[in-house]
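New to this. Comment on this protein:
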Amino acid sequence: MTTETTSSPSTTAAAVSDLNPSWQIKLLYDSACPLCLREVNFLQNRDAGQGLVAFVDIADLNYAPEENGNIDFETAMGTIHALLPDGTVMVGVPVFRKVYEVLGMGWVYAITKLPIIGPIADFIYGIWANWRLKLTGRADLATILAERQQQIDCSTDRCKIPVE
């Protein structure tokens, strides 16, 4: 279970790819997860094209960690991550709290700020994050990583059979 909520901003240019972003939070999500995608679709509808939330699909083969706080695919698959414009990385329940606040629905997760409720919410989310792949009928992380690497290799002609 991840209890860390944020880390200090990185000073590298790669951590903040846009010096003046229009977004207030960049949400990294897994479009191959049906429940995650449902939540993102809801949030995108709430954003209504305002660009307050930048949605980044980590399942996209072109996902670039260097443009997203150097959060690699495997790490992003373990638990939800987001970035703030200053490069601060957020992890776990605080990500949901911040996204909902940005979209004017902070009341939904406000209860997770309470001393007893917050740790319980973190614990429950930790269980969900650990079991998310299995509960949504997907392969384990090792299999997903291997399949992803094969897809990346094939997209760069590394898996094609040479013509004699």
In short: The longest helix spans residues 117-135. The beta strands are 6-7, 25-29, 53-57, 81-83, 89-91. Helices lie at 34-47, 73-78, 93-102, 117-135, 141-155. Residues 51 and 115 are 32 Å apart (CA to CA).
